[in-house]
Amino acid sequence: MPWVQLQIPADPDTAEQLEDLLMEMGSDAVSMEDAADQPLYEPDPGTTPLWSQTVVTGLFQSDRDTEQLCADLRDAWHQQTQQELPEIAVTLVEDKDWERAWMDDFQPIKFGERLWIVPSWHKAPDPAAANLMLDPGLAFGTGTHPTTALCLEWLDGQDVAGKQVTDYGCGSGILGLAALLLGAEHVIGVDTDPQALEASRENARRNEVADQRLDLYLPGDDPDTRADIMLANILAQPLIGLAPRLAELTRPGGDLVLSGILFNQAREVMEAYEPWFIMDEPEQKEDWIRLTGRRKTG
């Protein structure tokens, strides 16, 4: 069955109100897209930022009277806002197996020499490798973003056997689970989002490491266990604020791995960690940076 797609331009002040209206009018799905290729890097805590130019899209069943639907939308919008609704772009979208198409976009990815990230519905290309089976539907990190890839490539190049690892801002658990599959003894994962911790637990069960080797915590509940390897793939400003805590949780001589940092933010983040760590030169992938260092022993 084909669908009727309505696309309406909006700004941050009206996008969510327009989303609600489309749902009230019977839309089966509503999405928002950036209309001007504007990146959103670091939202303030507790906020849900939107692009300055947003397109709100609603999908309706094809048996709807499109002219009447658009007229009803304009009338309802005017009643709510006393403003005219921007021009509505109407297109007919052919039906397809959206879930199948989405799954086809995720293929196994190799990082370095030993590590593969494998979507849960695929077979591992190299059964002898460290294969991390991951469900991208759980979000929070799938290995496709340069920041995650930088950290995975670093892990693949290290001897992590027997190491204590902390993954601060663990998301899907991808970094900590990769460390376990590469031989780490124990991983502590920390994240502010309980849903992220649940994603980590589910991925741990899928990879058969949901035992005494992985513990997950909200910030403030995590123990003061010192890590041999401290991983934090977050964003620059949170990383700067976390510098004293991450230093406290890294043993002398331990490794620090930071990402989620844009190229022009690297120096500021390095300076925040230099009181405790000997920092290396940044490694870059696209616009993103990985910082590494070793905890000072004195």
From TrEMBL:
It is an enzyme of class 2 (transferase). CDD domains: AdoMet_MTases (cd02440). Its EC number is 2.1.1.-. It holds the Pfam family PrmA. Transmembrane segments: none annotated. It is found in: Cytoplasm. S-adenosyl-L-methionine binds at residues 148, 169, 191, 233. GO terms for biological process: methylation. One of its GO terms (molecular function) is protein-lysine N-methyltransferase activity. Methylates ribosomal protein L11. NCBIfam families: prmA. This is Ribosomal protein L11 methyltransferase. It comes from Marinobacter persicus.
